[in-house]
Amino acid sequence: MTREIEDLIRTAQERQADRALPADRIRAALPRRAAQARRRRRYGMAGAAVAAVSVAAAVTVPVVLLRGPGPAGTAPTAAGAATAPSGAEPTVAALPQTYPLGYRPAWAPPGFGERIRFADSSQPGDPFGPTVQRVWKKQVGPGDPWNGAGITLYVRTEVPDPAQAMDTSGQRVDINGVRGYYSAGGDAKSYVDWSPNGHTVLMLAAGHFDISKADLLRMARSVRPDPTVATIPVNLRWLPEGWTTTAATISGQGPTTWRAEVSAVRREVPTGAATPGKDKRGVPPVEGGTVETGSLSVVVGAVTDAPAGGKQLTVGGHPARQPVRTDAPGRDLIYLVVDLGQGRLMTLVGEGAGLTVDDLVKVAEQAEVNPPGKGWIGN
């Protein structure tokens, strides 16, 4: 609560380093994904400086359509099938509302359950394509789920050249008849990656967890195809022109404590501006790609990292507030916190590309929230 801003920034950077993929094989994709991670961390730093507002967590939220019920005789449509309300521009969804999980391990160390699912989209020039992360942890809190020990399965099934996407500097190992590469580093980090077919790269990585080589390989060798399709609980049915959804995270300690986050950005083709070829964070685009000039995070959960207080509003018939930060890292951020009722808050945090509070209000009013499939959380 009393740490200096520099300490908060340093802590955020260290936490992000813990989440980073090991080795150098992701250099080509690091700028975009590091920018996404820094953005999530920057949004979340307020949580280290102010007390989170907590509400009852063990409540299952039914379909919530913030703008109110539809015409008489109609019911809210399911997430992923909704159409934009009349007069609203539809969301440009680079990230589909549903996505295949691809693969899953049949064994994990005792006490570890699947508690995080993450999916992102890709842009032209990305050598990996879309990525799914499935994370096994012993526990996660109601806020940012990424801290602490975990084992992550990275699934990429649209890789143009798997040989170029793997780190082959590690120890050669056999993963169900195909060659894999095992590496271990400091800080209780180890990983193994392999390619089960001509377009898929899998990696199993342990962080902050001193797992034995034998157990990591046992878990890797238990990985099998998984036909399950996941649904993102938060459907952003409207975004400002030029914005697009790019990533989503679902987490929870158990079926009734889920949290969901959806990220969106505005991308533009680089021009001869003051910082040509880079976005406002100094991150260059991948070859043939674009730069991000604006970003938005929408989180539905039992707590908020937004500062306390702020102007009182009503959004879609729900009580809301507009907090403001005056510290250097946060003064460019626009916040909106909406009380959905039944123990859930929606927190929107945006910056850049001319984004306004009115834009956040409209995003929230058109949003649709559905509980995620519960059977996987903690199993």
TrEMBL record:
This protein's record includes keyword Transmembrane: yes
Annotated TM spans: 43-66
Region spans: Disordered: 270-290
Keywords for the protein's UniProt record, in alphabetical order: Membrane, Transmembrane, Transmembrane helix
Protein's name in the database: DUF4367 domain-containing protein
Organism: Actinoplanes regularis
Taxonomic lineage: Bacteria, Bacillati, Actinomycetota, Actinomycetes, Micromonosporales
